[in-house]
Amino acid sequence: MDAEDLEYLKSKGCFSLPSESGDLVKAYFQFVHPSFPVIDGPSFLRDYTAGGLESINLLLLWSMFSASASYVALPDRRVVKESYVYKAKLLFDLSQENDKIVLVQSALLLSFWFADTEDVKQSWYWTSIAFGIAQTLGLHREFKSSNGQIPSQQQRLWRNVWWCCMIRDVWLAFGMGRPLRINTPGCNCHEPLDSDCL
């Protein structure tokens, strides 16, 4: 990242985490994660316990906060949520994130934000990005590793991320009265097991 972009992100507060960060993480795992396990919960909590918030990907963290802020007592919640979304969007656009799974996870979490009931294009936009990257990565297909190169933990995460894409597609199609965008006959990724969704 060039110095100008770095300074811009700093001036917009992208590197200054909110004082309620601990409450936001707790709310995420209490309210968001059980029904939408788009991140690897055990790995996140292990890294968080060992190194605090500094050990967590910043883009993913702001995206998580944008989803969990609905469940935390905040003054002027809507404005605060909007600021979290704004910071995540800036990082998404400027940080040149190399981890494509983080991009999919963040886009899916950002798809939960809309300013009002008329503002549905944000959800549609972010899920389009998530679905496109996920399918480019081949998450919609069963992955086979004949020589054991893909660790089982990574396979579980990929499977969960893909099924979160599927769930989000159904939710939005139903809520917006639009057709599904994911072509399910072209997908053969197995459903996650209960043990995958920790």
SSE pattern, N- to C-terminal:
HHHHHHHH
- Structural class given helices, strands, pairing? mainly alpha
* Helix count, DSSP H or I runs of 4 or more residues: 8
Beta-strand content: under 5%
Low-confidence stretches: none
Oligomeric state of shown chains: single chain
InterPro entries: Fungal_Detox/Toxin_TFs (IPR052761), XnlR_reg_dom (IPR007219)
Organism: Amniculicola lignicola CBS 123094
GO molecular function, one term: zinc ion binding
Keywords: Nucleus
Protein architecture, described:
It is a single chain. 58% of the residues lie in helices and 0% in strands. It is an all-alpha fold and 198 residues long. It has one domain. Helix 2 (21-32) crosses helix 4, helix 4 (58-68) packs antiparallel against helix 5 (77-94) and helix 7 packs antiparallel against helix 8 (152-176). The protein is globular. The chain starts with a helix and ends in a 22-residue tail after the last helix.
